[in-house]
Here is the input.
Amino acid sequence: MIISLIGFMAAGKTTMGRELSAKLGAPLIDTDAYIEEREGRTISEIFASDGESGFRRIEEECLEGILEEHVSQHPETLEDMTHCTLVLSLGGGIVTTPGCRDLISRFTYCVYVKADVDTLFERLSKDTGGRTLLENRGDASLRQVIEHLYHEREPLYEALARTTV
Here is the structure.
């Protein structure tokens, strides 16, 4: 089984992914880090040169490649729901791409790591951490962007998840 973690930026997916990986003895792949390594550019640089649509295309290619490689090496992954062979920490906006939603639904046990807007704002106002969609904004604007993206994405997270934590 492949466990995928979805949720808004700063919800705690990477932290939970590390904990799950250690507890289950399964490798962890953070797709944002994977993309940066594969592309040789930061997420911000990709957004600046390719735009959000270009980034989402790269993100889908990477997710498809990760799943294809893992399933070919561990074919039992799709039937064995008792043993985790991989933990995926997915980027917050990955659910906006229909192809990614399909891959996540077909090949992973999807967990929505949920945090409310106030918690997300508190975490992100301290450090936007190179999150391109949030950079260079004052607190009022930052909160508006978080609320807008959250309300846009939350139904997608909820529809895709088998479990919410």
Q: What stands out?
A: The chain has a mean pLDDT of 90. The chain has one domain: 2-164. Residues 1 and 76 are 8 Å apart (CA to CA). The radius of gyration is 16 Å.
